[in-house]
Amino acid sequence: MNQLRSSQSGAAFIAISNWILEHKGVVYGAGYTDSFEVVHKRSVTKKGRDEFRGSKYVQSHPGNLFQQIKTDLLNGKEVLFSGTPCQTSGLYFYVNSALRKKLYLIDLVCHGVASPYMWRDYLRYLEGKYKKRIISVNFRDKSFGWHSHRESFCFNDGYTIYPYFSIYQDSLLRPSCGICPFACLKRPSDITIGDFWGIERNHPLMGADNKGCSLLLCNTLKGKKLFDEIKDSVQFQLVGIEECLQPNLIHPTFIPHYHLLLEWSYRSGGIVLVMLVLKIIKKISENNQSY
User: Fold this and answer.
1) Is the pLDDT of residue 2 over 80?
2) Which residues touch 7 (CB under 8 Å, ≥6 apart)?
3) Is residue 130 classed exposed, middle or buried when 0-12, 13-18 and 19+ CB atoms within 10 A define those classes?
């Protein structure tokens, strides 16, 4: 239950990565620097792996990650890499076919990612507004329930805010996310994981508690074999593909037409102007919906 509570959906990543670590393998996933820059990290322990849990709606910095992965594979280790589909695709083509035998790729049902510079400036904006230092962030605070999409920021004095107005709206995603070639069922990875939105409609016992349920797609024979290794440690239900299709398995996220206005605002006045423009857009939208 603790793993479910601390994971973003149903803790599928924990079950898979546990198997890799218990077989002396290496796990790579997205974590944070001390200043909350989103970066990919390496771990050979469950404690280190735990940082990779939870959503991080920002493009991660890979550093020399691919070289590290190749070294691990050359040393005969089994390697699990989790990331966005574009990242797993890049890694697949970076590693030659012989080394891929021990490389397991997990991608996400990705909604899109925001610019790391906007994320950096947004943190500075919040710290300046509240005159406090941020010590933890949560892109989707599960204390509000699995279906909630509320972010939270905890400051050094214990004060926590839950903004209604997140920087991570569709309007601020990377433009390339709006034409993503991986927003379909033809995936570049062995396994795809994500939130199983709508599970309660056909399988009410799996999603009715609002604690989270993972969608897991086995895309390759290697992915199916990996799932077979962990299936006894999880509660699962086989479903037809038509039952589990999520929007981003059908088409990319739509980037609103005012995206260019926000881009211009950021270049002209930084994150403060972006936040002002977003508030105006939100107000106009609310007024239109009231008529």
Assistant:
1) no
2) 13, 14, 53, 54, 212
3) middle
